[in-house]
Structure prediction request, 547 residues.
Amino acid sequence: MIEIQNLSKCFQNGNECIWAIKNVSFHVNRGEIFGIIGLSGAGKSTLIRCLNRLEEPTQGRIIIDGVDITALDKRELRAKRKDIGMIFQHFNLLSQKTTYENIALPLELAGLDKKEINSRVNELLEYVGLRDKRNAYPSQLSGGQKQRVAIARALANNPKILLSDEATSALDPKTTKSILELLNRIRNELGLTIVMITHQIEVVKDICDRVAIMENGEIVEINTVEELFRRPKSKTAKAFISSLKSDVQEEFVIPEEFNGRVVRLSFWGDNAKKPIVSHMIKKFNIDVNILSGNISQLMSTSAGHLIVELVGEDGEIQAAIDYLKSQDVDVEVM
Amino acid sequence: MLELIIPSLLQTVYMVFFSTVFSLLLGFPMGVLLVITEKGGIWEKPTLYRILDGIINVLRSFPFLILMVLLFPLSRLIVGKTIGTTATIVPLSVAAAPFVARVIETSLKEVDKGVIEFGQSIGATVPQIIFKILIPEAMPSLIMGVTLTIVNLIGYSAMAGAIGGGGLGDLAIRYGLYRFQTDVMVVSVVVIVILVQGVQFLGNKLASRINKK
Prediction:
């Protein structure tokens, strides 16, 4: 659906070139929710704005549905942009227009007549659950409601792709959840492909299928969300995941302070629900001391981490570790 | 007294009304052009911006009375004479136009960059962004700007009176200054003050009524 090849973007600062994006390549599948996560300044905002050329790429190609976006002239680009909806962190609603007028604007600009606009806007209001806010101005709406208006407005022209630029960053956790649910519904029911950038790992966890980790203008890791939580490869990804488990304080487990062998076990999917550790204790002559652990709910599955101290003879410990591996548990000796 | 004040008041209203209309016709497009052609604008044209910016600065530097005298030939060309209320509308409009351009520029620049970006993201053309997003979003501020322009033009029109433009300023100078009829001068000034207050009051009211922010 979206193919990004060797994309780079430089911001000219006098004679100097500051590279915000460095040679980035990835693809997004049709109907996928693809996340791009990174700290602020990682270049993710610039990257998503290159996808509809709000920001002009310096090098590289962006192919959407077989069309090279970077090769389009202004008129062709404007037409293509109607296929790509976008929502923003600060909603970007017109403050002087009502909910209805805001959603109607893209339709008006596309040249629809009053009757068509009316029926389409009513349909969209219904879809995002804002029928009673039809005549309210943005200043009378809550953050979540504003983002719903923005989503309805972005959907007005039936786009195939939705770009989300930190759409939940200004919202509280509960509202964030409801907006993410709406986006997921849009993907499932309308078949949109969604590319979203965020600095919130919770968002990735809740809704994304795959995710790219960005750091200093480069993508350091692309992974399915399941794999990311199971076996994060990059340091940044690990940092994001451990930030999610703030209640676990994993870093305070210092293996040297224990006599036994300290291992980190990762479970996922059905594994997380089986009493594997209990079986292990019964099977082998070892003691298990649980140091920390957690289970997080990913979009479609659950992933669990457990840090345990194994006490016993070396041979038994090794056999126990082998047993865990045979049960598809990831074992990392710390 | 009334037979002196009423015709002068009407002349002032006439001058101010038409010079407001014409200065807006001249200045509004210039203000829009300034905003869209500047660096980072939606129709970036740096050279055009610099030229426009320069012209406006030069025009605004002229003291109004001098500009008025310089524009006598233009008045003659357009209305056929250089003296009189109608003739005064020409220099008033030209003098106020660059002021209007700056006022409009300032108002339009207050519009949140995010909504312009939204417009671009849905494939809006430059005219669509100007007329469907930029101007509607800036409307309350634009009304305040027009109010400011009218108040300014009331002041200018009083000065124009001094060189044969008629109106309340002219009355105050002729009777008050030259004939020592202080009462006429006082009444003229009071009427001007009421006019300014009224315009400002209405402008504020209208702007806050339509503002939904």
Chain A has a mean pLDDT of 90. The first strand of chain A starts at residue 2 and ends at 13. Chain A has eleven helices and 14 strands. The CA atoms of residues 72 and 78 of chain A lie 9 Å apart.
